[in-house]
């Protein structure tokens, strides 16, 4: 995979990969989306549906962020700016979900 | 610093980190947008299963249709990154082709969303029907508004590229537009899973 990835043009302007590499990522994203829909329709997977779908979604998310948005090749400062927002956003969503869905079921 | 000096011939401004100011600012904007969409997604999740009147999500959400529109948005992201690659290589013809691809696919996604909204309204689900309708339309509506802004941005870039005003030296303009487009895509990845698939 590393041979597919071209060198940085200059720091902050992002490195880039070859078009073939981007097509490969696009293909992987398509396959994962198809798998997600299949998981939704297969009754035998109903018990494991939520963790499987969350894993598939997180994989797609990371592929787009790392390769299409170039964070894999770009300055760590950009990763920091994005992660700061993402961590806060994730914490807020999890906290509210626990507060309104999990704690009431536990009788807290 | 030496790198920043070496690239000072172009039109871009560089921050004290040596990174392009546009890009630093735009990543900060994307970080703030994460919180914006997290608040909308959290609202949807908090009200999930609390509607006392229908239509309910399991009765009305169309998974095959939304899977196709999700695929379309993912392919638009591929088209966007290929457009950036073409700009960086100075290939004007491919730049125009891939930017047109983003515009067509983005408009296609919006068409699917318009069809879905119209169908839901005919089925009796509006913004005021129940908490599912309120949180669903606000969340997906704001996402659609972002896609609309992105399509307008892409049309602007296409016109500039067609006039020969976008070359390798201007690739940062396309890269920043691409960051916005890919962000809209990753937000949809989350919405598709949490709203449509995990019911």
Whole-number tally of structural domains of chain B: 1
What is the mean predicted local confidence, pLDDT of chain A? 85
Cα-atom radius of gyration of chain A: 18 Å
Order of helices and strands of chain A: EEHHH
Largest sheet of chain A: 2 strands, antiparallel
CATH topology of chain B: Four Helix Bundle (Hemerythrin (Met), subunit A)
Q: Note the main sheet of chain B.
A: none
What is the global morphology of chain A? flat
Low-confidence region ranges of chain B: 1-9
Low-confidence stretches of chain A: 1-11
Report on the structure:
The complex is a heterodimer of chains A (108) and B (199). Helices cover 69% and strands 6% of the residues of chain A. By secondary structure, chain A is mainly α. Chain A has 2 domains: 1-74; 75-108. In chain A, strands 1-2 form a two-stranded antiparallel sheet. The model of chain A is unreliable at 1-11 (pLDDT under 50). Chain B has a single domain, classed as Cytochrome c oxidase, subunit III, four-helix bundle (Four Helix Bundle (Hemerythrin (Met), subunit A)). Chain B has 7 helices and no strands. The longest helix of chain B has 32 residues, at 131-162. Chain B starts with a helix and ends with a helix. The relative contact order of chain B is 0.16. The model of chain B is unreliable at 1-9 (pLDDT under 50).
Keywords:
heterodimer, A: 108 residues, mainly alpha, 2 domains, two-stranded antiparallel sheet, 6% strand, disordered N terminus, B: 199 residues, Four Helix Bundle (Hemerythrin (Met), subunit A), 7 helices, elongated
In short:
Chain A is mainly alpha-helical.
Q: Topology, please?
A:
The complex is a heterodimer of chains A (108) and B (199).
Chain A: E1 5-8, E2 15-17, H1 19-41, H2 49-68, H3 76-106
Antiparallel strand pairs in A: 1-2
Helix pairs in contact in A: 1-2
Chain B: H1 2-6, H2 21-47, H3 57-60, H4 63-89, H5 92-122, H6 131-162, H7 171-197
């Amino acid at each position: 995979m590393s041979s597919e990835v071209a060198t940085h043009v200059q720091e902050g302007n992002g490195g880039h990969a070859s078009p073939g590499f981007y097509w490969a990522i696009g293909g992987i994203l398509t396959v994962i989306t198809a798998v997600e829909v299949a998981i939704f329709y297969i009754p035998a997977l109903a018990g494991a549906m939520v963790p499987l779908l969350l894993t598939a979604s997180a994989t797609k998310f990371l592929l787009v962020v790392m390769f299409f948005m170039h964070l894999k090749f770009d300055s760590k400062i950009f990763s920091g700016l994005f992660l700061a927002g993402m961590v806060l956003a994730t914490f807020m969503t999890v906290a509210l979900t626990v507060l309104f869905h999990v704690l009431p079921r536990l009788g807290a | 610093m030496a790198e920043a000096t070496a690239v000072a011939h172009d039109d871009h401004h560089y921050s004290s980190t040596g990174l392009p100011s546009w890009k630093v600012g735009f990543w900060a904007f994307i970080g703030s947008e994460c919180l914006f969409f997290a608040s909308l997604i959290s609202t949807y999740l908090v009200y999930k299963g609390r509607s006392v009147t229908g239509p309910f999500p399991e009765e009305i959400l169309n998974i095959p249709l939304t899977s196709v529109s999700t695929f379309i948005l993912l392919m638009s992201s591929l088209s966007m990154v290929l457009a950036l690659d073409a700009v960086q290589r100075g290939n004007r013809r491919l730049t125009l082709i891939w930017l047109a691809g983003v515009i067509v696919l983005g408009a296609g996604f919006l068409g699917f969303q318009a069809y879905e909204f119209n169908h839901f309204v005919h089925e009796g689900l509006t913004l005021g029907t129940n908490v599912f309708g309120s949180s669903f339309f606000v969340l997906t509506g704001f996402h659609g508004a972002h896609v609309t802004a992105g399509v307008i941005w892409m049309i602007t870039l296409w016109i500039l590229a067609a006039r020969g005003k976008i070359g390798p030296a201007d690739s940062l303009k396309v890269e920043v537009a691409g960051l916005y487009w890919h962000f809209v895509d990753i937000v949809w990845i989350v919405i598709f899973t949490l709203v449509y698939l995990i019911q």
